[in-house]
Amino acid sequence: MRLVLASNNAKKLTELQALFAPLGFALVTQGSLGIAEAEEPHITFVENALAKARHAAQHAGAAAIADDSGLCVDALGGSPGVLSARYATLFGRTKSDDENNRVLLEQLASHTDRRARFVSALVTVRSADDPEPLIALGRWEGEVLREPHGTGGFGYDPLLFIPSLGKAVAELSAEVKNTHSHRAIASRQMLALMREVWHLG
Question: Is 130 a catalytic site residue?
Fold first, then answer.
């Protein structure tokens, strides 16, 4: 069975390929099928992931999976949230990981509450009009540091400290990150849902 990934992110493809291999899926990116990326106009991760999954399924004529993820900071009312990747542009800055991190630190400069979490919404649909999409949510709790730590990962990884591991995400090995991350948590939930509801594996 073919499962279309509603993303052209090579890292996501590698992670999800390994996860879904036991179910016998051939995971392919939408880009490899000539499918353009979907619009992401919604304010929640779940709505954006669902829109992306339905878009990929419609154009591919196959089952699809989509991920929408980002950082939610309590003191900022959940921001940057679904705008995590382009947070800096909201303040007239260039879109980049470094600028996003700088802006986040500026916005939190006067706050003592540093609680935050990475969130991943994973959605799969059997077809574009599937009335029963499978939805999994992964949350990885942490605290925003006052300066970057580590050189690994991407996005806000240098700023999110994980108390249970005693390190910033950017200081973790890829293996540890992929075991504990928000996407790993959501993926394990999704695998269980697909086995239960789609009767796979």
Answer: no
Segments of the chain with pLDDT less than 70: 201
Give the C-alpha separation, 172 to 166, whole Å. 10
Q: Across the beta sheet with 115-125, what order do the strands follow?
A: 26-29, 2-5, 63-73, 115-125, 134-144, 160-162, 167-168
Residue found by looking up tokens 């939408």 in the block: 30
What lies within 8 Å, CB to CB, of 112 at 6+ separation is none
pLDDT of residue 89: 98
| Amino acid 16: pLDDT | 81
Catalytic residue among 68, 97, 98, 129: 68
| pTM attached to this predicted model | 0.93
The rounded distance, in Å, linking the Cα atoms of 129 and 142 is: 37
Question: Kind of pairing, strands 167-168 and 134-144?
Answer: unpaired
What is the per-residue pLDDT across 132-181, written as a single tens digit (0 to 9) for each? 999 999 999 999 999 999 999 899 999 999 999 999 999 999 889 989 99
Tell me the β-bridge partners of 120.
Answer: 69, 138
